Amino acid sequence: MRDITHFIDGAAVAGTSGRFSEIFNPNTGEVAARVALASLGEVNAAVASAVRAQQTWALVNPQRRARVMFDFKRLVELNMNGLAEMLSSEHGKVVADSKGDIQRGLEVIEFACGIPHALKGEYTEGAGPGIDVYSMRQPLGVAAGITPFNFPAMIPMWMFGIAIAVGNTFILKPSEKDPSVPIRLAELMMEAGAPKGVLNVIQGDKVAVDAILDHPDIKAVSFVGSSDIAHYVYSHGTAAGKRVQAMGGAKNHGIVMADADIDQAVKDISGAAFGSAGERCMALPVVVPVGEKTAEIFREKMLAEIETLKVGVSTDAAAQYGPVVTAAHRRKIADYIQLGVDEGAELLVDGRGFQLQGFEKGFFIGPSMFDHVKPAMRTYQEEIFGPVLQMVRAETFEEAVALPSQHQYGNGVAIFTRNGRAAREFAAQVQVGMVGINVPIPVPVAYHSFGGWKRSAFGDANQHGMEGVRFYTKVKTITARWPEGAVEDSAFVIPTMG
């Protein structure tokens, strides 16, 4: 059986803890590999490597660090097909979706290639008599990222791309469910010219997470995962004096107004709800038609759309989505579907009985759809993270805005309308961090920032863009005077610029 290792100080390192986690091929249900789970000693070794590397990496000028990012981007693009196939074999998403996963990560790497410009500070000449004031952004030291299974390429690149470009070194703890791509990314970073120790990968579970949160040499931690664990990481990390950004769960809504292009909205929401088997924090699992007529039209058209969806193996180019990541996750989704029935929602499409001929042991689940879901239901309040679309009917625009605004999660939301005033008011009023207007998955481009509100995010800093630069750096401000002639007597009062 293939063993997946750690990547420490520029080399593969076999695990010594004696603990392993199985890696499945979701298409077949078979165990394909096992991954070593780190001990405290292995985390300490990775941090020690990162500390050594950071002392010299921070002195490399920004242009040269940017060149490493350029070369890394080129190498990832050259290896795109192999990386996508590797990703799909462990995650289950179709290869086209895996390429999208990688490409969205590369967009942040592209932003990081411009780090010399992003690191420019401020300067004031003549702030006082002969006095100039300027600021500079400096790296924190060693940063760490704890990433989820659903985007094993994109989210690590969101984190380490900017962190490394600004002069930090990085410890990556990917999901133990699909850990191979992060290792390959670390190898490519070395090939691109990053010194050993700049990017280390530690495989592991809670032991590794707690070791990262407790280690005094790790100055910042970025996390993406469920809200309960995000809260734990934020609380634990900040208590240890670290800078922490922790992104949690989501329950994104799509508001469909009566004047919307319903056919287009159905296409968009179908892709957003069922693409990648719904295993996306920016999926759109709740649709809110405004008005009874809108709801009935949307329902009819979406049912017809679902009938056209093809679920297939990850390598099937015609498939809209593949299996979910594990058998346990498939059971969890099926349990939520049953809970929705028990709570009184109308189950229009039941995907629990789906099986793919020739792959009966794979972790497949068909698309499901509920109507007449009520806000008090657990299935509405909680994140299902699967190919399940719930329809919550609203009578008015105000009621539709209130639904996502009052939900415990506030990650993303979308409105479908031709009315510019309604869209403008919605964007201004809704209490959600990322808003789409006729855009079903409103993930911002790399030079803006990504982040939700409420239980979707803990901490004050968003991911990537200039928010990422600020998160991974600290500001130093210098006030300088170059006196002429004799040195004046020391002043024992606060200096002013008058």
Radius of gyration: 25 Å
Query: Largest beta sheet: what is the strand line-up?
Result: 15-16-17-14-13-19-20
Rough shape? globular
Percent in strands:
15-25%
Q: Give the biggest sheet.
A: 7 strands, mixed
User: What is the distance, rounded to the nearest whole angstrom, between the alpha carbons of the first and last residues?
Assistant: 74 Å
> CATH H level of the largest domain: which superfamily?
Aldehyde Dehydrogenase, Chain A, domain 1
State the secondary-structure class: alpha/beta
Quantity of strands, as a count: 23
For the record, the CATH architecture of the largest domain stands as 3-Layer(aba) Sandwich
Descriptive notes:
The chain is built from 16 helices and 23 strands. With 498 residues, it is α/β, with parallel strands linked by helices. It has two domains: 270 residues, Aldehyde Dehydrogenase, Chain A, domain 1, CATH 3.40.605.10; 185 residues, Aldehyde Dehydrogenase, Chain A, domain 2. Helix 4 packs parallel to helix 6 and helix 10 crosses helix 11.
Features:
498 residues; alpha/beta; Aldehyde Dehydrogenase, Chain A, domain 1; Aldehyde Dehydrogenase, Chain A, domain 2; seven-stranded mixed sheet; six-stranded mixed sheet; 23 strands; 21% strand; globular
